[in-house]
Write a structure and sequence with these properties.
Blueprint: H1 9-19, E1 22-26, E2 29-34, H2 51-59, E3 64-65, E4 74-80, H3 84-94, E5 99-107, E6 114-117, E7 121-123, E8 129-131, E9 140-147, E10 151-158, H4 165-172, E11 196-203, E12 208-211, H5 216-224
Parallel strand pairs: 4-11
Antiparallel strand pairs: 1-2, 2-4, 3-4, 5-10, 5-11, 6-9, 7-8, 9-10, 11-12
Helix pairs in contact: 1-2
GO molecular function: catalytic activity, acting on RNA; pseudouridine synthase activity; RNA binding
Family: Belongs to the pseudouridine synthase RluA family.
Protein name: Pseudouridine synthase RsuA/RluA-like domain-containing protein
Length: about 230
Amino acid sequence: MKLLSNTTHKEVAVIDDLEARIIYQKNGLLVVDKPFNIPTSGRSLDDDDCLQYWLMQRHGTMVWAVHQLDADTSGVNLFVTEKRLVSIYKKALEDHNSVKEYLAIVHGNPTWNQCEEFGAIGKIDQRSLGITPDGKSAHSQFTVTKKGPEHSLVTVNIFTGRTHQIRIHLSHLGHPIVGEEWYCNPPCNRHPRQALHCHMVHLPQMEQTFIAPLATDLKRLADELQL
């Protein structure tokens, strides 16, 4: 394993734990099953509270994030080890044929089996995001996968990548994510993080598909909620 010269024994332990989360590593692309409770990127390259930092320690040189997942969102996260690949994979992700599929555990049982949401997302005040006519266009598709007594498992496909898009759209539809603190009134404390997981990224133009099984804590939550 190639490490930076100042890597500590503690950091080595974290890096070793990360090994099991590597989904794919070839030709400059590095795909990770991101754990929850850590963001994709930090405030600087020296910020050790992010996945990018630890991948840099593991790789021994610069690593770039192709897309961002919220700190509490787990699942498929793409990085590259060559800067020229950033724009290539960003463009691939934005292609209308690409699939970015998430799994979410939500409150309630939707009356629909499938729903398209186009609510524009933007600032509704100085500190909050939400649905607003002046926001940026956003498009999400929701499909009910399974219903429990009081909750549902929903498969989500997003066609744009606005900040907190899935969380805001589901809340707007009246089915906020379990564990949601910002877009649920009152905030949900049923689970210590929002129950959202990036399950699959499919890039047909590159003939690549990456899958991360539902995170262990969300599997337990689904069982508890009879999903």
